[in-house]
Write a structure and sequence with these properties.
Layout lengths: L1 H15 L1 E6 L6 H7 L4 H6 L3 H7 L7 E6 L5 E7 L4 E8 L2 E8 L3 E10 L4 H9 L2 H11 L5 H4 L5 E11 L2 E15 L2 E7 L5 E2 L19 E4 L2 E6 L4 E5 L2 E4 L5 E3 L4 E9 L3 E7 L4 E11 L8 E2 L4 E5 L9 E8 L2 E3 L14 H24 L15 E3 L2 E3 L6
Antiparallel strand pairs: 1-2, 2-3, 3-4, 4-5, 6-7, 7-8, 8-9, 9-10, 11-14, 12-13, 14-21, 15-20, 16-17, 16-19, 17-18, 18-20, 18-21, 21-22, 23-24
């Protein structure tokens, strides 16, 4: 309770201060950010523990962050999202700067809309909503099963039901598609997000097109993925945005999927690091390597199962292991939800549960189509609760 009251006081102070919103630049690092803003490196990076230093390397390009300044122009607070649940908080207290990670305060809304096709699903969704994110998740979800260019006609109908998180009254993070329908030549095609976290069509067949292999054969998982957890001993919020595979130094590391190397080099936290960009917005990360496979360089195309490096303990690592990260559209996701899951058709109790979920979504989609539900644009004048702790709520932040 005391911790959240302190955060509330910080937040209300933020309301009264000059607040600016920025977009994290492509290729910008946390250290570059500190240097650019004349913030002290020692307390805000070099004195941090290993987990916190590694987390600072998880800031992804394009994320919106907020800086609060005092009247004299000095920075008083910074909030930088790491994912949709956790953020870096830098704050000034008695002329000293401190670093911590805090939960992101957000709310999740279920939203829906329908529209008639004029040009293409991608372009029409952007014109209706102004969101490339909504357009991207709709098109990519049907990418492997439908041919929009060949079979889509002007006047066909599409519908989307999705979850959207809101932070500071504005959409935050990637929306999550729950169900969608598109009509093509008089036939309706559906897709549904099942309770197992995977997409299926109306025949209960999986439609997700990207599957991964295990990057270290026979390795033991020493640490699992978590976006946010509270450490009861350290009294801190931590995150582990990947899976650690413990293995002997020199054990081969295989590319988990086919793609192109977009980064290969040395970092402080992750040591020798490779990032591979795959299709459909997926990216994989391979950290703490002992060495890279000869011939692997920036721009190299690698195939699924191809050796790209060898297990080590470089960077901030307590022993030889591979830290394996999986990202979709810059958001960290749990690799174990995707790795080694074969395309399948539901049956038995799983199919029965899915068909009930499908029936509920179908009913909702039909109602939205009948009512011609339009995208609900955000009303800037609507009161928004930016911080909530039981009865405490403030909606006085005007600059964000």
């Amino acid at each position: 309770m005391i911790r959240f009251l302190l955060l509330f006081l910080f937040t209300t102070y933020l309301f009264a201060a000059q607040v600016e919103t920025f977009r994290w630049g492509e290729g910008e690092t946390y250290l570059m950010f500190l240097e650019k803003n004349n913030l002290p490196l020692k307390p805000l990076y070099y004195n941090l523990d290993e987990d916190e230093q590694q987390l600072s390397e998880e800031i992804y390009s394009g994320v919106h962050y907020h800086i609060s300044k005092e009247n004299n122009g000095q920075i008083s607070q910074v909030f930088i999202p790491l994912n949709d649940e956790l953020q870096i908080h830098i704050y000034k207290n008695k002329e000293e700067y401190f670093f911590e990670t805090l939960p992101i305060i957000s709310e999740t809304r279920v939203e829906a809309f329908t529209l008639k096709i004029e040009h293409s699903p991608y372009l029409d969704i952007i014109r209706e909503t102004g969101s490339t994110k909504l357009a991207t998740i709709f098109v990519s979800s049907f990418k492997h099963s439908l041919n929009f260019k060949r079979d889509l006609r002007k006047g066909d109908t599409l519908a989307m039901i999705y979850e959207q998180k809101y932070r500071l009254g504005k959409p935050f993070s990637m929306p999550t598609l729950k169900a969608a329908m598109i009509e093509m030549r008089g036939k309706k095609h559906y897709i549904y997000l099942n309770d197992d976290g995977r997409f299926y069509n109306e025949d209960a067949k999986e439609v997700e097109g990207f599957l991964l292999g295990n990057p270290v054969r026979g390795a033991r998982i020493s640490s699992h993925f978590t976006k946010r957890r509270y450490h009861p001993i350290l009294k801190k919020y931590r995150a582990h945005l990947g899976v650690d595979y413990a293995a002997s130094r020199g054990t081969p590391i295989a590319a988990a999927g086919s793609g192109r190397v977009v980064y290969i080099g040395q970092t402080r936290g992750y040591g020798k690091l490779i990032k591979v960009q795959h299709s459909d917005g997926y990216l994989t990360l391979y950290a703490h390597q002992n060495s890279f496979r000869k011939g692997i360089k920036n721009g190299s195309y690698v195939k699924k199962g191809q050796i790209i490096g060898y297990v080590g303990s470089t960077g901030l690592s307590t022993g030889p292991h591979l830290h394996f990260g999986l990202y979709k559209n810059n958001q960290a996701i749990d690799p174990l939800r995707v790795v080694q899951v074969a395309t399948k058709k539901l049956s038995g109790k799983d199919k029965t549960a899915f068909l009930q979920l499908k029936s509920n979504y179908d009913e909702s989609i039909n109602l939205h189509i009948a009512n011609e539900t339009r995208y609900a644009k955000l009303n800037d004048s609507e009161p928004v609760c930016y911080f909530f702790n039981k009865e405490l709520c403030s909606n006085s932040m005007k600059n964000l």
